[in-house]
Amino acid sequence: MRPTWREARPRLIAAALARAQAAPSGNWYVIGASRALPEGGERPLGRTVAGTEVVAWRAADGTLVAGPGACPHLGAPLRESPVRCGTLICRWHGLPLDGAPSAGWRPYPAYDDGVLLWVRLDEAGGETPLERPVVPARPDPRTAVDAVYTAVGRCEPEDVVANRLDPWHGAWLHPYSFVDLRVLDAPDPSAEAPEDGFTVEVSFKVAGRAVVPVQAVFTAPEPRTVVMHITGGEGTGSVVETHATPLSPDPAGRPRTAVVEAVVAASDRPGFAAARLAAPLLRPLMRATAARLWRDDLAYAERRWALRATGRFPG
């Protein structure tokens, strides 16, 4: 393979990261996949986001509800409580919460975009709030197949974002998946617009020596999100979204970040309609592919954080 280290200039990657961090998020954080909370489900979803304990569930009408994860009565962990007909019932003393303010408990703004669940934490984010999260453009859900993979690493969100804004590492770190990777265009380090992205030409390995060439563009629409849009070749219009959500520190005080990656696949091939019918079988395969890639990419992000934390990061 051709070395790419001269092209992967630290200043260029750092400038792209700085532009992403300067973009507004409106204090919205991804907390999981929409399918993690099925309508009529009896278990809530619990997360500790940026040090804030959050619980989420579906109201009786299917609407997403989110709020503080500690019961206002005596602090019980609401993530362990059952949901009955859209009402979360504290398992310590039976306090019912239907999503409306009650007994000192107040909901957080929440949003379900059909693929991912979001919660707005104004105190943690500290930005000017936005009414809706910055959701990337996606294929029509009626003609697409989506899958969501989640992993957790000992790093900060910026380390995950920096990994995605370094497309040059792809063929070197993931030789089992990518070949012939070329970065055709990179944003000017002095550019201000966060939508200025990296245009990449790469071939995905399918099986044996079979590969599928595509062209993709990486952009960072907000501080904790990097999006890859397939703009040419097989699967044009498909999207891979990588969202980095800060969690609570580990017992040693090291930061932890959840990587929530949504793949929304589309194709104009006639056979893709049959693939959509097999979506329940395809999703585990899509998640397995993401898991293999993120084993390496999280090692990259964790190494970056370890070097930054000890003042040894050369970039």
Automatic annotation (TrEMBL):
<feature type="domain" description="Rieske">
    <location>
        <begin position="28"/>
        <end position="119"/>
    </location>
</feature>
<keyword id="KW-0479">Metal-binding</keyword>
<dbReference type="InterPro" id="IPR050584">
    <property type="entry name" value="Cholesterol_7-desaturase"/>
</dbReference>
<keyword id="KW-0560">Oxidoreductase</keyword>
<keyword id="KW-0411">Iron-sulfur</keyword>
<keyword id="KW-0408">Iron</keyword>
<dbReference type="Pfam" id="PF19299">
    <property type="entry name" value="DUF5914"/>
</dbReference>
<dbReference type="InterPro" id="IPR036922">
    <property type="entry name" value="Rieske_2Fe-2S_sf"/>
</dbReference>
<dbReference type="Pfam" id="PF00355">
    <property type="entry name" value="Rieske"/>
</dbReference>
<dbReference type="InterPro" id="IPR045612">
    <property type="entry name" value="DUF5914"/>
</dbReference>
<protein>
    <submittedName>
        <fullName>Rieske 2Fe-2S domain-containing protein</fullName>
    </submittedName>
</protein>
<dbReference type="InterPro" id="IPR017941">
    <property type="entry name" value="Rieske_2Fe-2S"/>
</dbReference>
<keyword id="KW-0001">2Fe-2S</keyword>
